[in-house]
Fold each of these.
Amino acid sequence: MIINVDSPVLEIHDLTVSYDQSPVLWNVDLSLPPGKLIGILGPNGAGKSTLIKAIMSLVPVTGGYVKIFDRELNDVRSRISYVPQRESVDWNFPASVLDVVMMGTYGKIGLFRRPGKKEKKIAMDCLEKVGMQSFVDRQISELSGGQQQRVFIARALAQEADLYLMDEPFAGVDMATETAIFQLLQEMTAAGKTVIVVHHDIHSAMNYFDWIIMLNLHLVASGPKSEVVTEELLRKTYGGKLNLLTKVTDIIRQKDFNPLKN
Amino acid sequence: MSFDQNAFLIIFTASLISISCGLLGVFMMLRKMSMTGDAISHAVLPGIVIGFFVSGSQRGLEVIIGAGILGILATLIINWLKNKAKVQLDASIGITFTLLFAIGIILINMLAYKVDLDQECVLYGEIAYLPIDLWITDAGFSMGPRITYLAVLNLLLVAAFIFLLYKELTLTSFDENFGLVIGLPAGAINLALMSMVSYTTVSSFEAVGAILVVALLVVPPATAFLWTKKLTSLIKLTCGLGIFIAIAGYYMAYLVDSSIAGMMVAVGGVVFLGSALFKSIKPNSIFGTSTSIKPLEN
């Protein structure tokens, strides 16, 4: 089930991505509304991260196109923010927490110029939002996994964008932090920003997202949570993984939420 | 001990070269590209020979341009082999620089009667001849050692390059994809860094030789990284180590009457091994960081 919207913030048309001849995303075609907290769900290897990377032109696209704010990516880079997977960088890099968060402002500073007081203030505000203000001067090699993740989110916030793409921002994050960050994301969407999150925990996805994209090489579903979370679509997304499916039905039962009633 | 002008010139020039190499080496190390620096320093040989052949002298601008082009070419070939032909990075480095270096040696032998260049000069260099290799102006006026001027110019350009692009170099070294996303020309910055490494290699090879340039690119940054986790301290410590290596290397070589460049690298290696040994015994001693290591509160 794929629900399309008028005047979308992000429009993907017939997108196909392949690595070494073998496609990892087939004909993905969807459009997303502004001001929503959007979750991308799917099993491992479903192409969730690839979809985010294709939107940001970080992987070559075999077919189709992506339009953001009805424009080409290069025209709207300053309005898009990106949180890569935490493992994609070497945290042994000699930089402080403040240094990394300030990197979010570099796109707006331009070549050859140095960040100044204004950029430092933005970075401090963003660190406060993720509750890391007391770690400003700490070296990033001395942080725990959850703290590294919060630093990355603060860096994305420092970009002051309208569209946020986050690749597994909750991997290795404890429950308290996860709740706090989800609250922050909900505040952002309430302020009109659009946040797209690659997520693997179906349980918390049900609690927080407004709009859900289900992906398994093909696009299985894209639409408001109440309409797309059905046992049939979850089964289609997660395939024959029976263990997982029982877990899903358990969760649905526990939450006293039966989509089949809808 | 009286002031020895020759000793001062040699140490001064060697320090300049170590600092230039160290500054670039810090970023090469952070990009996990130290071995690419090694590859470039060898791969520039055909460029040097062709430049030498075209200009007829090793002082020509053509030599530097030729080496620069070959350095970039080596980087492009390595990247192409790694990304498109799916050859492992270490293998693609090994294939690329040995091939280009071999072409350089063949060219030297073919043009041997036309160019005053041999591979020993390129590979080993000899900084001890520096005080007698003078820059004589057209009016016949001696301006002092030619290589010292080259080293000063090289350091000025390297320092300006790193000062201007400090923000971009740091960001793309830490997280290249993020740099691309916010619209930084990450590929161009990478190639610019490789060109600076090529230029530094050429500028320094007469003094310390291509092999020893590699050591100066790798060893001081790697040693400094054992001691600090802060980028500005890392750069300062690398420069300090470069100067120390130049001074200690010169006097040790003087003592045992041996190669100065060789002794410089030997001193660097010993300092590195000492540091690594010390850190393996006392892993928590660190300086240059702004915070002490203590248990995190959450």
Note: Residues 101 and 155 of chain A are 4 Å apart (CA to CA).
Amino acid sequence: MEPGTFERLNLFFNIGLPVLALLLAYVAGSLLERRHFSSIRKREEEHFGFPVVTFDRMPPDWEAASSRLVSGSIVISLDYFKRVIAGLRAIVGGRVKTYEPLLERARREALLRMIEAARQDGYDGIYGVRLETSRLANASGDGKGTAGVEMLAFGTAVKFDTRFDSGNRF
Amino acid sequence: MTLGAVSGFTISNTESIPGRRIVEFYGVVTGNTVRAKHIGRDIMAGLKNVVGGELKGYTELLQDSREEATERMILQAQSMGANAVVNVRFATSSISQGAAELFAYGTAVRVE
């Protein structure tokens, strides 16, 4: 091997590859995030008007025929590029902007999945909705490891008694 | 996803079962499950981790686990003679690297 080749290879593996991975992660991650947000907006429009409330008690004008616990969940992770940025941000402190859209879309997706599960089975509304966030183990701050976050949305879905249906519930 | 879909049994995360009256309380019932990550799923998740987004393998793993914890809670309630569980809560805790406990609890009751 001629002198210099090893150094160049070394340089490529130590700096070139991580930079390439960062670039790929940035491009693909941003694209996926934009697509996810547009899918969320579209589905939220579809379910507009479906009553979902966080009250502990059923709204008084609901007459329940039957009920069931419904849930929706998602495990989501940041792309490599944003994880590195978040890691850097953790040094100086302050607002970690890269995590905000991640948690927002996970939460909205979990809510949508809960609503979709309820509507699929013919339920007319959900009350007592709760949202929970939990971090999966093995998430390290250096951009390595699986940094997954789980969002869980759950609530009590109700089928209205059609005998009392006034036509305008919400 | 529908949790605890056992026929003739109702669960709710609120203090009552809509449209039904509680006639008897049996006390707290719990159900848990501890799951470790599957190595195949972990490798896939590791790859997916580069571009970010949903880790479907994990979403399903946690859904299955939560379903199992809920079923165990219902079994305990049924053994007491209850036909419903109210005020159901869920909790997740990482107990070690790569393993997590999923836990469901609530109050077993009999409704009309």
Note: The radius of gyration of chain A is 23 Å.
